[in-house]
């Protein structure tokens, strides 16, 4: 699995990781097996959140005995993101995950608590060794500007955002902003929400054609496109060990510039939306 620098974090991180949104809806032993299979195949960037129901508990079971292999990320809900609330939320997440630390801790989306208070909580957690870095999620450029000012230059490790072939809004301004400042960009829901382009669609046929030339799958081609730039990472969810293995296969896939250009044309960027999409 290819690894690369993750913002200011000193260690390199797997470009294809594992998301856990709705993973608690699956048969628990199967969900745990899927995460462990992903770890076996190098998808050691593992993302969860306090909002995701029992997902943190599932992750805690999956990483038992393997914590040092994992780049572990969780997220605080904005309603819990006061100075003291951030610390308490993180401690609850740590208990559910059965670990003493997070590699990165995120504010899940912009909320009503002042960012200065949230980030003060993050810094307290970092001083205590309970988190090693921190970042944000679902932040558009105005939010990022405010976060950069509130948190200090070079403190934001990443911005986790919605990004898939049919939703490329971050490319207008968010991605350039992050790249200019060395902030990693993590794509969640990289296959969309039940709307991955099938082989009967024009875009789906392009993916299938490129996949066939590499002995790969259309999903692997899509994931590879989404991490084509050095700042980009993605965290697909897998519902089974077989699905996890398919996702991991994108980690070493190499697409040519001509193939990337074909995908770019097949899934055009579209106009910049007034608000950054989250779903």
Please characterize this protein's 3D structure:
The protein has 279 residues and is of the alpha/beta class. It has one domain: Alpha-Beta Barrel (TIM Barrel), CATH 3.20.20. It is built from 10 helices and 9 strands. Strands 3-4-5-6-7-8-9 form a 7-stranded parallel β-sheet, covered by helices on one side. The chain is globular and about 50 Å long. The model has no long low-confidence stretch (mean pLDDT 97).
Task: Give the key terms.
single chain; 279 residues; alpha/beta; TIM Barrel; seven-stranded parallel sheet; two-stranded antiparallel ribbon; 10 helices; 9 strands
How would you characterize the largest beta sheet?
Answer: 7 strands, parallel
Using only C-alpha atoms, the radius of gyration works out to: 18 Å
What is the name of the CATH architecture? Alpha-Beta Barrel
Number of domains: 1
Taken as a percent bin, the fraction of beta residues is 15-25%
Helix content: 25-40%
CATH class: Alpha Beta
- Mean pLDDT rating: 97
Assign an overall shape.
globular
Order of helices and strands: EEHEHEHEHEHEHEHHEHH
Helices and strands, with pairings:
Blueprint: E1 3-6, E2 9-14, H1 28-40, E3 45-47, H2 55-62, E4 71-76, H3 83-97, E5 104-107, H4 115-127, E6 134-137, H5 141-151, E7 156-162, H6 174-181, E8 184-188, H7 202-214, H8 218-226, E9 232-234, H9 241-248, H10 257-266
Parallel strand pairs: 3-4, 4-5, 5-6, 6-7, 7-8, 8-9
Antiparallel strand pairs: 1-2
Helix pairs in contact: 1-2, 1-9, 3-4, 4-5, 7-8, 7-10
